[in-house]
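Weekly structure sync - notes
Attendees: PM, LS, DV (DV joined late)
Agenda: review two folding runs queued last week.

Item 1: First target. Sequence and structure tokens pasted below for the record.
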Amino acid sequence: MKELLRSNDAVRLSWAEALLTAAGIEIVIADRHTSIVEGSIGAIQRRILVADEDLARARALLAEAEGSM
């Protein structure tokens, strides 16, 4: 698994999760529970991980979607 995105922005993470899942890319959100436990100070960011073979496609999807915003 490779890290695709790291953020404290719940909306951005949810958007990226929906985009990638709709494209058939399986993801893992790391540090979700740790981030919640530490409170809202933002010290621990959540990370979206994808399989090594999906990384290039996932990056391209995010870049294309962000460019069209």
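Item 2: Second target, run right after the first with the same settings.
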Amino acid sequence: MSVVVADGLRKHYGETVAVDGVSLRVERGEIFGIIGPNGSGKTTTVECLQGLRRPDAGELSVLDLDPVHRGAELRRRIGCQLQESALPERIRVWEALDLFASLAADAHDWHGMLREWGLEEKRNASFHELSGGQRQRLFVALALVTRPEVVFLDEMTTGLDPAARRVAWGLIEEIRDRGATVVLVTHFMEEAERLCDRLAVFAHGRILATGAPAEIAAASGGGTRLTFSAAEGELQWLNGLDHVDRVTRHDGHVEVVGTGPVLPLVAAALVEHGIVPDDLRVEQPTLEDAFLRLTGGEE
């Protein structure tokens, strides 16, 4: 069941087209990723879906509600962590949670959330006293305290060190495990591969590809690459194997590029021809490879 729907979403800022006919669907209970270069329309799209910006064209639905005309009702059922999230410097951790909990009739017990999100020792700390990782845990707790059905996270791990980023990944998975649907905007390819059930690749305000990370990598990442050493001899028969796209030879090494089950097919054929290389290496296409090919290497 689709709980987030966009059909033909368009948004302009003067002469600049920020979002140009975006259509997507997010299913209940999944982590849906949005990746793309800076300025590709990611944040504008999720802000329109949350009712924070009014689109110029297109139809939007989140939890069967129109974000434009029923935004106040919608925001009582969703949680969000915006790209530029911040709180007053002097507000205390418990005060922020108490304030957010007061906005929902069926909010979580925020006292329990202090313990669950590792913030109990910081309950009386001011926002400006928190580390980057502690602030992220607080933002996630604030996004969840109202028991949202859909949670939007925009560049949640930007600025975190690798250890804190991995803690944040665990928090995101826990959000999904608690029954919420997650829409995650990120520019970290490893993060998208690790967390997302499906994702959309944005560029220039449009979606270039959608699907599971592995599907996008396989379709657009340039294929699987096999390399091995081989004595001089005729190996052109490799070109006749199914799923092999290209065979090249250089300085005693052979490179085979292909798709799908190319590895077992090539390995079996090599053994059949009496060739058993002990340095066979395999490079599978990654989401980063696909992203760079799709977007032309834009930052």
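Discussion on item 2: The domain at 220-285 is CATH 3.30.70.980 (Alpha-Beta Plaits).
Action: LS to circulate a short write-up before next sync.
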